Amino acid sequence: MPELKVKGVTIVETFAEAFPMVGTRVIITAPTLEWALISARTMTGFATSVIACGAEAGIERTLSPKETPDGRPGVAVLLFTMNADKLQTQLRNRVGQCVLTSPGSACFAGLEGEKKLKLGASLRFFGDGWQMSKLVGGRRFWRIPVMDGEFLCEATTGLTKKAVGGGNLLVLGKSHKSVLAACTRAVKAMAELPDVITPFPGGIVRSGSKVGSKYKGQIASTNDAYCPTLKAAVNTALPLDVEAVMEIVIDGLSFEAIHKAMHAGIHAIAKGGAREGVTHISAGNYGGNLGPHHFHLKEIVG
Amino acid sequence: MSALTFKLKGKPDQRLDLSPLVPARLARLKQKQIEALVIGTTRAKLSVGDFFKVKGDDAERLRFVGTDKRCDNIGKSLSEGEIVVDGNAGAYVGAAMKRGRIEVKGNAGALAGASMAGGSLAIAGSAGESAAGILVGETHGMRGGVLTIGRHAGPLLGERMRRGLVIVGGDAGDYAGGRMIAGTILFKRGVGRNAGYGLRRGSLIFLREPEDILPTFGDCGVVEFDYLRLLETWLRGTGRPVRLGGRARRLMGDMSVLGKGEMLILA
């Protein structure tokens, strides 16, 4: 079978293995877009992986005043966990500590969803009895008195159980610089798409992991097959001329959303062609036995 | 299908009870059966056919043409569909309605939208006393939905109101929002004496500062309210544009009762 290439970059015949997650979206608004972003970045901080952060979260996109319920600039945030109870806890803690506290902020539901998660319905107790409930257009909102006026927060937001976490691309290249540039381009392309986030720093992971470790109690450890410094010592997946590998992890509200994001990502990576130094685009999987969602690169490129 | 239309033949010599003329009741009736419905309120058993010329066949959309202030109970307890009143309405228009939409192109009598629980009631003209107020036998006034009054509202607007939104385009009478439990009333112009008397929770929003404010309301000064922006955005989206901005002077009260209600006077 001939090797599949896009602009000289080899598309490895493999697949990304992803897992079901539960997800939600909230909309954060503020007096300025800058402050909405500050609030959203704070809320989605330390949320790269459920392995140790409790949740995976990120900014989906910014919203113009015409797109928000209160006519102010806003940001749509996506939050994912492995089950609804954890999502509820993470949502309450993150909105309570990072959005409620942020000057001038307000928080609204961003998803209809099959079921509801408490948002203001939980945070209202901060009002110590002075909170006010308001129904506007059939939606309930809580007005919680705070030192800069009021924190306006919708009572609930929706959750979806159709979310998918762990869509991924592995980018191999002849230099650290070329791989970083290609991945940055891909993350930017994916950021244009709805319903997905790339939760790692700047959307890129340089420390992909494998399951387990030689050390007891360590549930994940470095993906040695993709570490260029270990080529000679392990069952490496890397050609000798590959100097660096980076991964883009994608979480989305649906299988289709991740499929589209991976398609956009692959083409953005390959945009510069092999001349820029990217040699392969691959994906991480566990043999197909752990995650029910398989994203075959060949089908995505096609 | 055309709207089921009731055209008043002449000025009625008695008050008419039009409460049977709602879509849920008319859906399975033929024209003759509709014309036989009793709507008179005196000992003489007068029916729809005696007062109205009936035409059309879509019972989900009702239209009253040429009605006057003696035509009571239009859309009372409405649970579905749409009613357009091309004229005036008597007392109890939209009272206890649950869902659906009523549009009155003229004025409405007393107790318009009283104890209504949902849906939309829009009165282009003025409304009599106790609009969105409390029906006899009920414990609460308006419990949901939206009531818009294009011009003036009589006294006791929203008395004992529990939930929902009232918008008054003109002046409102005395005791507006009296004994209100919750909900929101938006006053675009003036309001009479003792607004918010006995207000427990709920919001009275004023585009103009009321001339007379009860001494049992405490001033909190001017503050930013994102709630006002939310309300403004929603109102604009539903075709009821009102400029609210985000800054308002807040007065809490009525301190003679629970005192967790508010007057928001736009700054």
Briefly say what this structure is:
Chain A has helices at residues 33-43, 84-99, 120-123, 176-191, 255-270, 297-301, and strands spanning 5-6, 9-11, 15-29, 56-63, 74-81, 106-109, 115-118, 132-136, 139-146, 149-154, 156-173, 196-197, 209-211, 220-222, 244-252, 278-282, 293-296. Chain A is an alpha+beta fold. In chain A, the strands form 2 sheets. Chain A has a 15-stranded mixed β-sheet that branches. A two-stranded antiparallel ribbon of chain A has the order 13-14.
Description:
The complex is a heterodimer of chains A (302) and B (267). Chain A is an alpha+beta fold. Helix content of chain A is 23%, strand content 35%. Chain A is built from six helices and 17 strands. Chain A has a 15-stranded mixed β-sheet that branches. A two-stranded antiparallel sheet of chain A has the order 13-14. In chain A, helix 4 crosses helix 5 (255-270). The longest helix of chain A is centred in the N-terminal third of the chain and has 16 residues, at 84-99. Chain A is elongated. Chain A starts with a strand and ends with a helix. In chain B, the strands form two sheets. A 13-stranded mixed β-sheet of chain B has the order 3-1-4-6-7-8-9-10-11-12-15-14-13. Chain B has a two-stranded parallel ribbon with strand order 2-5. Chain B has 267 residues and is mainly β. Chain A binds chain B through residues 29, 68-72, 104, 106, 130, 132-137, 141, 143, 148-150, 152, and chain B through 144, 163-165, 182, 184, 201, 203, 223-227, 229-234, 237-238, 260, 262.
